[in-house]
Structure formats: structure tokens, C-alpha cells
Recover the amino acids of this structure.
């Protein structure tokens, strides 16, 4: 089976892991070139999550990264390459094979080799131009497992500094001033009618994804208040079974993760929250929204009320004076609202961006965004929200937006990749059996386990539209050359970033 993740500044599982060649080709045909930075890190995380959700250790699992540059999200970014390597190490520790393919003169050979599985000679390579991708696809089609074949002759291109083309300069529209939360009488919505006793009549079951900020500006003591809030929300929720209320939690800073999948087991949720670790970092509200939306898409549907509740203490940003992430966070919220998902936005402290919160929130705004001066107030909000028939800020909650100030989050500590040994040239080597596979004289594979491959494909600004067409050709060729059969055979998926 094969799947595809495509990435630039953002990352997405464009083609879920599958074995339907026609569906994969149509998926690739529909991909759009975006440009942007080189978020190899999130591409790896998305591919790993797809394999964890839809594959297991009984199958050979592989992630194949195709990129033209070093992982980075802003000029001279020292962090993203470090965390991309760590993400690759985590996948390898889970038994996933990682292949790294660099194209062009802007690649970072050291990064590619660090990400690749052992033996390095079979799992990383470079080529001078995107035209060579079709030759690599042909060479790899004869392999029994996902690897660079010994017949492929390549020497790493000279490493140069690549300056990616970011998204065009963008800043959020000033728009109207944030709307103060008025005192309003309850009004029926989404088919719900409050009864005099406060119970809900004809209430559809609902699924809520909490999207919780754990960036550096929050601090450890305030993080404890956030943990208390999450636990209190669980304890005050009337869980029953799969047909009733369910809750899941995404936690984010520079990175984002679905820490607690959507569920109705209060005990499991409390244990999940107890195991959360405070990380610090930047404020990647964008990826938090994307992860929450993906969880709802995968495990909920329009027959249920669906909500995303964002709790943050600052503006969405991934580097100092970042003008992009807040714009794309608002766009991600708009996409969720267009799918019928309710978005609540809760800001805490003096560093919040009231305009961003209001822009993300659903209509009517008065019921879907609020602010509070300190994290201590979260427990009061949890109590106030517990009486609501649907996920919303109750009319009884009295809050005025805190003054908007510029928040400077505490990023990860300064880090740069270890120099380590020089990249190993790809030697000429005789084939050696691995993973229980033995090449026969005819080239067929004996005792071959089925395998799942996630292509992780760079579409950043430094690639350009003409080279992107070569990447598209490569993906299509990989699909056409793969011997798909059924769900028990080879599968492929694609992450694009």
C-alpha cells in the first residue's frame, strides 16, 4: 500500500495509505503546488501518524522523504532540522524504514544521512536535478523492499545553502475592532431548545477536540492550571458510550500532537492528561487546528455536533515577527467552520491577540470567544461551561477582552545539529538479505512481508513549478510501477509539505 504526504510550510496527508492505483493517481493529479518553507519535520510526523493509525509491525513500513533543501521554517532556523532528525529517529525506533532522497544543489547531505535508516548506502541518495527522479523510480521498482538499489549510482551533490521562497508577505487584515461580549438572552441553535430546568431537548451527541497551547510563554506554573482545567472538563462531562459525548485533546507549541484521541472513557482521558509533558516552544495554533480537524474528520461526522476549543495565551507564530502563521491559523479555522465544526477560541493573559481569537471563533461571536486575565480563571470557565447544552461560552460568563499586547514566546533552547561524521558516499555493495527477504535469481522476493510506504514530498518555494511537475511524474510513476493487489498487499500513501 502507498500513501503520500505533501509539505512546504504546512504538511498534509494528501493521499491516505491505500492500494487503489487509480485513486492514488487521481489524488496526485489533484495536488496543487504551493511554495513555502521546508517543514520536513511535520511531514515526517504526519507520515508516522498515518502508519501508526493504519499499519502495524506485521507489515514492512517505510517513509520516503523527497526534498530539495534543509528543513527550516524561517531564515537561519536552527531548530527544525534538529527536530526533523529526532522525528526520523522515533520512526526508526518503531521499526519503520526511513529513506531520504535529496534533489538539487540546495540539499543538506548531513541531514539526509542522519534521517536515513541503516545501512545508509541503501536508504539515502542525492541527484543533481529533478529530471533524474524518473530514473530512480525505475531503479527502485526492482527492489523487493523499499530501498535504494545497489544498481543506483549516485554521489552526493555539493551542499550549498538554500534560501527557500516563503509565502508572499502577508499580514492579517485589521478588520473591525474585536466585538465585546454582550449580555444576551439564550437563543435556540443547532436544533437545541433549553428547557426551564436547563436540560437539553433533542440534543444531538457531540464531539469536542480541546486544542491546548503549551508554548514557552505559558510557563510551568500556568501549565499546571491548564492541566487542572482539562481534568475538570473531563470530570464535568456526562460521558455514556460511543453514541454520546466524546472528547479528545491536541496539545501544541512549536509542534502539535493528538495526545488524547477522541473517546468517551473518562478514566483513560484523565490518565492521558496526567501523562502530558510541558515543552515550551513557539505557538503553532495552526497545526493544532489542523490536527484537531483531522481527528474529527477521521472519527466523527455531520450527524454529530463537532467542536474545536482552542486555549492559548498568545498570537500564532513560529519565529519573531512571524506574519504568516496567524493568517493560516485563521484560514484553518475557516475551513473547519465551513465543514460545520463549531470553533471556540479562549485567550488567557495579557499576550493574547483578541482579533485573532475573534476571527477564529464561530458565529455568534459572543458565544464562541472569550478572554480572561489569568490561568486561575480557567476552573471558573470550566464550571460555567458545564451547564451548556452545546460547546459554547455561556451567557452567564462575564468577561471583557484583555488589552492586546505583543507576546514574545520562549522558543526551544538554542540548538544546532551535531556536525557528526561527514556524509557517507554510497558505495558499490553486493545485495544482502534483510528483513527476512532473499532475492531469488529471477529477482522475485521470497517470503516477502507486505509493505506500507508513505511518500513525504517537499513542495517548498525553492522547488519551483517546473520541478514540481517532475515530482508529480515521479509519484505517478511510483504508483504505476507498484504491484498493488488488495488490502493484504502493498499500500502507499502520500504526505505533501
Amino acid at each position: 500500500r502507498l500513501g503520500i504526504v505533501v509539505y512546504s510550510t504546512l504538511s498534509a496527508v494528501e493521499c491516505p495509505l491505500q492500494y487503489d492505483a487509480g485513486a492514488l493517481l487521481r489524488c496526485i493529479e489533484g495536488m496543487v503546488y504551493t511554495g513555502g518553507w521546508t517543514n520536513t519535520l511535520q511531514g515526517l510526523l504526519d507520515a508516522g501518524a498515518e502508519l501508526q493509525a493504519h499499519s502495524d509491525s506485521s507489515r514492512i513500513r517505510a517513509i520516503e522523504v523527497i526534498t530539495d533543501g534543509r528543513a527550516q521554517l524561517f531564515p537561519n532556523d536552527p531548530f527544525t532540522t534538529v527536530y526533523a532528525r529526532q522525528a526520523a529517529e522515533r520512526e526508526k525506533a518503531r521499526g519503520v524504514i526511513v529513506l531520504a532522497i535529496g534533489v538539487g544543489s540546495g540539499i543538506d547531505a548531513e541531514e539526509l544521512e542522519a534521517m536515513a535508516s541503516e545501512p545508509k548506502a541503501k536508504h539515502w541518495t542525492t541527484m543533481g536535478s529533478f529530471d533524474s527522479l524518473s530514473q530512480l523510480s525505475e531503479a527502485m521498482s526492482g527492489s523487493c523492499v523499499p530501498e535504494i538499489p545497489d544498481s543506483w549510482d549516485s554521489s552526493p551533490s555539493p551542499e550549498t545553502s538554500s534560501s527557500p521562497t516563503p509565502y508572499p508577505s502577508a499580514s492579517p487584515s485589521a478588520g473591525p475592532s474585536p466585538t465585546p461580549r454582550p449580555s444576551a438572552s439564550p437563543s435556540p441553535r443547532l436544533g437545541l431548545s433549553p428547557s426551564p430546568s436547563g436540560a437539553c431537548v433533542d440534543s444531538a451527541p457531540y464531539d469536542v477536540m480541546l486544542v491546548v497551547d503549551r508554548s514557552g510563554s505559558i510557563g510551568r506554573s500556568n501549565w499546571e492550571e491548564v492541566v487542572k482545567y482539562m481534568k475538570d472538563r473531563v470530570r464535568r462531562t456526562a460521558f455514556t458510550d460511543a453514541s454520546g459525548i466524546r472528547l479528545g485533546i491536541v496539545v501544541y507549541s512549536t509542534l502539535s500532537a493528538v495526545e488524547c484521541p477522541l473517546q468517551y472513557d473518562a478514566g483513560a482521558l484523565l490518565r492521558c492528561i496526567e501523562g502530558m509533558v510541558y515543552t515550551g516552544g513557539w505557538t503553532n495554533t495552526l497545526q493544532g487546528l489542523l490536527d484537531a480537524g483531522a481527528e474529527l474528520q477521521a472519527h466523527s461526522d455531520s450527524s454529530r455536533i463537532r467542536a474545536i476549543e482552542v486555549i492559548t495565551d498568545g498570537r500564532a507564530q513560529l519565529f519573531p515577527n512571524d506574519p504568516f502563521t496567524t493568517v493560516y491559523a485563521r484560514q484553518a479555522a475557516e475551513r473547519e467552520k465551513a465543514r460545520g465544526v463549531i470553533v471556540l477560541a479562549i485567550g488567557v493573559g495579557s499576550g493574547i491577540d483578541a482579533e485573532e481569537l475573534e476571527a477564529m471563533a464561530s458565529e455568534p461571536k459572543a458565544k464562541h470567544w472569550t478572554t480572561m486575565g489569568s490561568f486561575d480563571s480557567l476552573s471558573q470557565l470550566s464550571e460555567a461551561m458545564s451547564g451548556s447544552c452545546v460547546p459554547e461560552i455561556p451567557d452567564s460568563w462575564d468577561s471583557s477582552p484583555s488589552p492586546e499586547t505583543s507576546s514574545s514566546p520562549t522558543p526551544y533552547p538554542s540548538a544546532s545539529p551535531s556536525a557528526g561524521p561527514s556524509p557517507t558516499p554510497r558505495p558499490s555493495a553486493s545485495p544482502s538479505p534483510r528483513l527476512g527477504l532473499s532475492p531469488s535469481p529471477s529477482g522475485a522476493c521470497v517470503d516477502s512481508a507486505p509493505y506500507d510506504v508513505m511518500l513525504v514530498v517537499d513542495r517548498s518555494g525553492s522547488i519551483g513549478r517546473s520541478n514540481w511537475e517532475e515530482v508529480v511524474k515521479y509519484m505517478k510513476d511510483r504508483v504505476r510501477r507498484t504491484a498493488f493487489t488488495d488490502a493484504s498487499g502493498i499500500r502507499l500513501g502520500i504526505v505533501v509539505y
In short: The chain has a mean pLDDT of 78. The first strand starts at residue 2 and ends at 7. Residues 467 and 473 are 10 Å apart (CA to CA). The chain has twelve helices and 17 strands.
